[in-house]
User: Which sequence fits this backbone?
């Protein structure tokens, strides 16, 4: 079936399903393949559960006209998303970065929805499958969209831009993340800069944190339709100043010489620039100060990203959805700056995808953590364990740490949980709450 014909089917059934456990009635099931599964095998089941059509790429699974046969399901998904994007006239904001892109995306959505019907990437559906699914989730009611784009190799952001075709863009920062895939820090900058290249080539608008030297240097290599600058220097047209960080953030921000203060539900001084980015985008799209502040104040972090849990025993900063060198350093700086009568405890887990730099970066992090005053340190994971010393507790696995923490019974603490997602730190949370 040709793309135009598939698109007509999509317009009649604009809900896409990829998992038979979450099938929606009258949706289109996409028989995607993975390393351990073949979606074609589930196409029949999807139809039984209520899907109207199933798009497959193996002829042996085609039983009737409800099975739409294509050469490759993934490519068809991406081409269908591109075609749908070409029909849209709404503003689309593309966002990427080493750290903070999901939090920034959520904050931007929280602000913009005070005035607009906003679609934003769900969760972290930010890859070669998630971005096209996100674009196909945009409907006639949507007035503006925020699309998150992630990558761990060169040219991935460039490819995602051909699908989302953002007219506006933001890079939160560039840091030491996915070093193995990118080929080092310079590779990270090159990869993230693919968003700048797209905006430059397509007369796009850039939102730029003007105090970030790396981003400014990267942006200077291109020409844009316009640059909206923001930062913490009062010279910027939109500027901010951190006025509270104990542990929730309060930010005073200025636009057109008018100052206003907003208190967020976020912890971590590193989130101040994510808040300011959302403010800058809100200002650009015509929201007033009250609308912007309402959006910021009402956003509650979840999914273990800068999330504070106040349990009966401890105050816990849950920031273990992901971790890399830059975000780890920011988390250490943040907890060291928090003034509290509580004893502080750092529970840090291995950082993944650092390649040949891994042991070196873990060693540097241990050294920085042990320099913090009045902080107990617990390090968990294979790389951290290789650096074992008598100045802190080290455990090779999360399960070993859980067993030890059950016996220790931490109480009356301010605890930071920070690790890569694969370290399953929810097990740690369960025994320290």
Assistant:
């Amino acid at each position: 079936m040709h793309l135009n014909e598939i698109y007509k089917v999509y317009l009649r059934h604009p809900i896409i399903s990829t998992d038979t456990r979450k099938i929606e009635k009258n949706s289109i099931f996409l028989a995607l393949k993975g390393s351990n599964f073949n979606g074609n095998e589930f196409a029949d089941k999807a139809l039984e559960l209520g899907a109207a059509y199933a798009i497959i790429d193996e002829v042996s699974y085609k039983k009737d006209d409800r099975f739409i046969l294509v050469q490759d399901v993934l490519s068809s998904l991406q081409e269908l998303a591109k075609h749908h994007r070409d029909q849209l006239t709404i503003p689309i904001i593309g966002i990427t970065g080493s750290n903070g892109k999901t939090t920034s995306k959520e904050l931007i959505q929280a602000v913009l929805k005070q005035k607009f019907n906003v679609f934003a990437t769900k969760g972290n559906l930010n890859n070669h499958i998630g971005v096209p699914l996100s674009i196909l989730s945009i409907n006639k009611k949507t007035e503006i969209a925020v699309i998150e784009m992630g990558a761990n190799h060169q040219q991935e952001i460039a490819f995602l831009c051909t699908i989302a075709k953002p007219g506006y863009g933001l890079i939160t920062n560039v840091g030491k993340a996915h070093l193995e895939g990118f080929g080092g820090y310079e590779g990270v900058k090159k990869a993230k800069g693919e968003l700048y290249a797209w905006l430059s080539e397509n007369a796009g608008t850039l939102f730029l944190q003007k105090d970030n030297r790396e981003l400014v240097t990267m942006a200077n290599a291109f020409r844009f339709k316009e640059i909206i600058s923001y930062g913490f220097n009062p010279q910027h047209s939109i500027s901010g100043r951190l006025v509270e960080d104990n542990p929730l953030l309060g930010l005073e921000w200025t636009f057109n010489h008018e100052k206003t203060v907003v208190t967020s539900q976020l912890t971590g001084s590193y989130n101040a620039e994510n808040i300011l980015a959302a403010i800058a985008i809100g200002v650009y799209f015509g929201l007033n100060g009250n609308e912007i502040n309402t959006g910021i104040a009402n956003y509650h972090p979840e999914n273990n990203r800068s999330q504070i849990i106040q349990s009966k025993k401890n105050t816990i900063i849950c920031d273990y959805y992901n971790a890399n060198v830059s975000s780890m350093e920011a988390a250490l700086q943040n907890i060291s700056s928090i003034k509290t009568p509580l004893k502080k405890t750092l529970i840090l887990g291995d950082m993944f995808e650092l390649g040949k730099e891994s042991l070196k970066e873990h060693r540097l992090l241990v050294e920085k953590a042990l320099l913090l005053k009045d902080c107990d340190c617990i390090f968990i994971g294979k790389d951290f364990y290789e650096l074992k010393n008598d100045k802190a507790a080290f455990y090779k696995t999360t399960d070993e740490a859980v067993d030890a923490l059950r016996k220790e019974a931490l109480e009356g603490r301010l605890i930071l949980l920070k690790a890569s997602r694969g370290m399953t730190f929810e097990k740690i949370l369960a025994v320290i709450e």
